[in-house]
Amino acid sequence: MSVEQTIRDQISANNILLYMKGSPDQPQCGFSAQAVQCLMGCGKRFAYVDILANPEIRATLPGIANWPTFPQLWIDGELIGGCDIITDLYQKGELQTLIDQASTQEQA
């Protein structure tokens, strides 16, 4: 399976997916840590992929996403954005709405 197909499978298999540096327990950069804080603040489970442990994904994903940096948050198969966008949506309460809608669809 190609790296691109692996990424597409990960995105379609997880309603809420964060591509990040490190893990939620041990983020390896400040931007990933901040993104995790916002997601945890929404109180729903989310999947993650550590791009530091997966250099092929780290190299390939920006081309698929048309987004050069990490972290990247994907909800329901759509790229939401990076740290600044995640933080902004969280502060406005809009991230909670997106997360709740994704979580509801998961149970349906």
Automatic annotation (TrEMBL):
Glutaredoxin domain location is 16-80
Q: Name one GO cellular component term.
A: cytoplasm
Supply the PANTHER family for this chain: GLUTAREDOXIN FAMILY MEMBER (PTHR10293), MONOTHIOL GLUTAREDOXIN-S14, CHLOROPLASTIC (PTHR10293:SF72)
Q: Does the keyword Iron-sulfur apply?
A: yes
Role, per record: Monothiol glutaredoxin involved in the biogenesis of iron-sulfur clusters.
Instruction: Identify the residues that bind [2Fe-2S] cluster.
Output: 29
GO terms assigned for molecular function: 2 iron, 2 sulfur cluster binding; disulfide oxidoreductase activity; metal ion binding
The protein's name in its UniProt record: Glutaredoxin
Q: Which species does the entry assign this protein to?
A: Pseudohongiella spirulinae
What is the superkingdom listed in this entry's lineage? Bacteria
